[in-house]
UniProtKB/TrEMBL annotation:
Taxonomic source organism: Pseudidiomarina piscicola
UniProt protein name: Fis family transcriptional regulator
Taxonomic lineage of the native organism: Bacteria, Pseudomonadati, Pseudomonadota, Gammaproteobacteria, Alteromonadales
Length: 98
């Protein structure tokens, strides 16, 4: 990983952490988020995954997901250089074994 890639990674983590902390306090069922990226194809390869718990209904999860998309886009816009396409943001459920 190049020095510039490391800086971008730190910036992405900082911004997504802020979005995550805010979302945990205001979004029903939201648990955490993660990202993946191939810096040889940045920003097209950047993917953000929002994880919701399995207890929240699908309707609520989709509503919260739709509300979080612009927050993620706004947070990452200075890093990406433009608005991250919504297609690069996804929602998943976290399944826990008891």
């Amino acid at each position: 990983m190049r020095k510039t890639d490391k800086k971008i990674e730190r910036d992405i983590i900082r911004e997504l952490t802020a979005v995550c902390e805010q979302a945990k306090s205001i979004c029903s069922g939201f648990e955490w988020l993660t990202h993946s990226v191939d810096y040889t194809k940045f920003p097209e390869s950047l993917r953000v995954t929002l994880v919701f718990n399995e207890v929240v209904s699908e309707t609520v999860m989709l509503a919260e997901f739709k509300a979080l998309i612009p927050k993620v886009q706004f947070a990452l816009e200075p890093i990406v250089g433009s608005e991250l396409p919504a297609a690069q943001i996804e929602a998943r459920r976290e399944h826990r074994l008891n």
